[in-house]
Amino acid sequence: MKTNFAKVNQNIPGSKAASLFERRQNIVPRGVSNGIQTFVQSAHGALVTDVDGNQFIDFAGAIGTINVGHCHPTVTEALHKQIDQYIHTGFNVMMYESYIELAEKLAALAPGAFDKQVLFLNSGAEAVENAVKIARKYTKRTGIIAFSKGFHGRTLMTMTMTSKVKPYKDGFGPFAPEVYKAPFPYEYRRPAGLTEEQYEDFIIEEFKNFLITEVAPESIAAVVMEPVQGEGGFIVPGKKFVKEVHRLCAEHGILFVADEIQTGFGRTGKYFAIDHYDVVPDLITVSKSLGAGVPISGVIGRKEVMDAAAPGELGGTYAGSPLGCSAALAVLEVMEKENLNERAMHIGKEVMDRFHQMAEKYECIGDVRGLGAMCAFELVKDKVTKEPDKALASSLTAEANKRGLLLLTAGAYGNVVRVLMPLVITDEQLEEGLNILEESLQACYGKVDKAHV
């Protein structure tokens, strides 16, 4: 007998959630957004239950934070054990072994046959911010290059590096100086008349020209790149582009920083997405699924680069907390024991196959793309003009929520539907979630190419 994992028995918000939401409206600023107007009661694996008893299949994963699933027993056991021992001493006051053990494990997993060091922090934005500090300290240069459509955080520096104006930057200036935005390949929206190969060569030339027309390479400390752009719309760059940017960095003494905050720890089928490109970064920033929901982030890098800062110049009160380190060590254990990198590739194939089938049936799907289990499709009003359809993406996610599926949008135009389900999701839960996703699209779009049904 088939099990229905998604169970929505009443309108959202239900009575309990509605009461909580009213309190939320009174006390929490409206600048803090919410995807669905309900409140969690419990969560396990790939399932989330709200305070009114509705159960959802999770295709959002707390924005890519829950690769090992909600409340994985190995993680919760490690946290309970840590809490019983001590909660916090502050690494800069009294050190603890878990910090060292986690650093050693990440240094061993990260690409590069050279000595590495690892710094721990709290959030992804902090990791990027500290990567910038370290790069500037080591190179004695100030310039930072990020890429169009990229996202790196909401602090002053990382907000400056982020491309999307609304909602991340509007009205929050002036921004940090010495940050430059280079073009990033967006194959789906390449100029008419160019093949994929010609377009990649064109973007590479654009980057080379950028180092002539926009900023001198000898003034640049670091280039910061997401191996797959997350908030930018799950845009996967070509291998040739990534390798050429890395080569140019090495040529000009610029540090290459891989921002792996959303892509890391199994999401693309490898511990680090940059491994798909045969490129070894000087620095790697990590967070999100490293901690399975417990705040922790880090910077992994060449020892001589990481060691450039003097004592006291890096760190923070809660940076690399014992709880965060314990959770992260448990995550690495789960990933190895349950072969989650391999699982991600299986999930990605199932999702991409389904998305391609949907693209043949629904004229509103302009593009399907992804790497491993980091998959998305882009919604357009017309496949020829490729005009973005943000309204359809918004209505689709709302409809999916009503049917018991947590779902996220992304992209510079807000028209990309992305999936970040926990990698421990069962095949049955995955299939039901994909069914709900397609049913929601059909309900919102209502125009199916009958010849393909």
Account of the protein in words:
The chain is of the alpha/beta class and 453 residues long. It folds into 2 domains: 56-68 and 339-452, Aspartate Aminotransferase, domain 1, CATH 3.90.1150.10; 73-337, Type I PLP-dependent aspartate aminotransferase-like (Major domain) (Aspartate Aminotransferase, domain 2), CATH 3.40.640. Helix content is 38%, strand content 16%. The chain has 13 helices and 15 strands. It has helices at residues 15-27, 61-64, 73-85, 97-109, 124-139, 156-161, 196-213, 239-252, 303-306, 322-337, 340-361, 390-402, 427-445; strands at residues 40-44, 47-50, 55-58, 116-121, 143-147, 179-182, 220-225, 255-259, 283-286, 297-302, 365-371, 374-379, 405-406, 408-410, 416-419. α6 links the parallel β5 (143-147) and β6 (179-182).
Helix content, binned percent: 25-40%
Indicate the CATH architecture of the largest domain.
Answer: 3-Layer(aba) Sandwich
CATH class bucket of the largest domain: Alpha Beta
Rg, please? 22 Å
**Major sheet, described briefly?**
7 strands, mixed
Shape: globular
Q: Work out the count of structural domains.
A: 2
Low-pLDDT sequence parts:
448-453
Mean pLDDT: 95
CATH fold descriptor of the largest domain:
Aspartate Aminotransferase, domain 2
**Helical region count?**
13
Organism: Bacillus yunxiaonensis
Pathway: Amino-acid degradation; 4-aminobutanoate degradation
InterPro entries: 4NH2But_aminotransferase_bac, Aminotrans_3, Aminotrans_3_PPA_site, Class-III_PLP-dep_AT, PyrdxlP-dep_Trfase, PyrdxlP-dep_Trfase_major, PyrdxlP-dep_Trfase_small
EC number: 2.6.1.19, 2.6.1.22
